[in-house]
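Input sequence (141 aa), recorded before submission:
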Amino acid sequence: MRSADGAAGLSRAECLRLMSTAAVGRIVFTEQALPAVAPVGFVIDGGDVVIPVPRGSRLVAATRGAIVAFQADDLDAASRTGWSVTAIGRARIVPDPGDGAHEALLPWTAGTDPEFIRVSCQRVTGLRVGAVSAGDCETAA
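Predicted structure, token format:
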């Protein structure tokens, strides 16, 4: 369904599929009682967002057990088209994200001893903007 501004809502499945195509996302968290945002590499694993971070980093301290947001997009300013997805969920720190996620994250973790933030995507919303064919539109979940 399209809104007045030309945006089309996306299903949860389409949101997760689109997020998995993005190279970089942003994690939104609270640091010293203020909102903070950090660009991060990530993979989608079993419906969760998995983010490698340096062991003991500020992201580990700020996100442990916290509710966070994660956002990824692919927008083209020239054509005014693209998509944007936001996931909200609880973050937990895991020493090993599992074999599939670990393999996918190798380019981000080469030569480091990372920890991993795993965000369980409890709420996922997204929209597609600009020229979208009728077959590309899905209803928001």
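Checked by second reader. The helical segments are 12-19, 58-63, 99-104, 106-109.
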